[in-house]
Hints:
By secondary structure, this protein is of the alpha+beta class. The protein has helices spanning 24-37, 50-65, 114-128, 144-149; strands at residues 2-4, 10-12, 15-16, 70-76, 79-88, 97-105, 133-139, 154-166, 169-179. It has a domain at 10-19 and 69-179: 3-Layer(aba) Sandwich (Aminopeptidase), CATH 3.40.630.
Amino acid sequence: MSVAGDGGPFVSGPHLVREVHPEMATALGSLWLDVVRTGGAVRFRLDTPEETVRAAAEQEIEQVRARRQQLLVLGADHTLVGTVFLRRGEWINAEHRAEVFLLMVRPDLQRRGWGTVLLDAAVAHARALGLEQLLLATRGGTSLPAFYTARGWTEVGVWPDALRIAPDDLRDEHWLQLRLGRS
């Protein structure tokens, strides 16, 4: 899918990153920081130092380089508009499943369906890999649990007060599962 809408940037993808471009970690760090700074529920608090987010981006991209996880992106010319990661279960008894994480869309392009496009691409890729189920965790107190359940995911657990968003703001962590069927 490729779209250049509303005078905004050209968006291509989603596509699987097979070879990591040298600027990918920088691009991921910039996207992640933009999402964090606008209150996105992607591991960090609003006040997290920039260097912490950028270091995490480097670590995630290193995991992609090492083929320990996979990255699907929206974007063109190594400018990231959106991402979603898949990490297959590493133990032999968990190889049939994967974790979905860091589903992010550039803040100025949110609410246009790109999150759904990325999520659908991750599910299709997981099916192509022969996976049987996907798991993800998301922050409570947001619209995200409903976003996933509206797309067929089942809530399988809630960890009360698991995430500290600010000194006086604790949120539940919701765990959701999507069964893909047996391969």
